[in-house]
Amino acid sequence: MRLDTLYRFWHRFGDDGFRKLFDEGFSFENASFDYMPTFTAPGHASIYTGTTPAVHGILANAWYVRELKQTTYVTDDPSVSAVGSESQASRMSPRWMLTTTIGDELWMHTNERAKVIGLALKDRSAILPAGHTGAAYWLDESTGRFVTSTWYRDELPDWLKEFNARGLTERYLAQPWEPLLPLEEYVESLPDDNPYEVPFAGEDRPVFPHDLPTLARARGFGLVAYTPFGDELLTELALAALDGESLGRRDVPDLLSISYSAPDNIGHRFGPMSVEVQDTYLRLDRQIARLLGELEKRYGRDVLVFLTSDHGTGHVPGYLADRSIPVGEFRDRAVGEALRRFVEERYGDADLIEAFHNQQVFLDRERLRAAGIDRRRIEEDIAHFLLEQEGVAGAITGTALRFGSFSDPHRARLQRGFHPRRSGDVVVWMEPHWISDFGGRVAAMHGSPFSYDTRVPLVWYGWTVPAGRTTEPVHITDIAPTLAVFLRTPFPSGTTGTPINHLMRPAALAK
Question: pTM for the whole thing?
Answer without folding.
Answer: 0.96
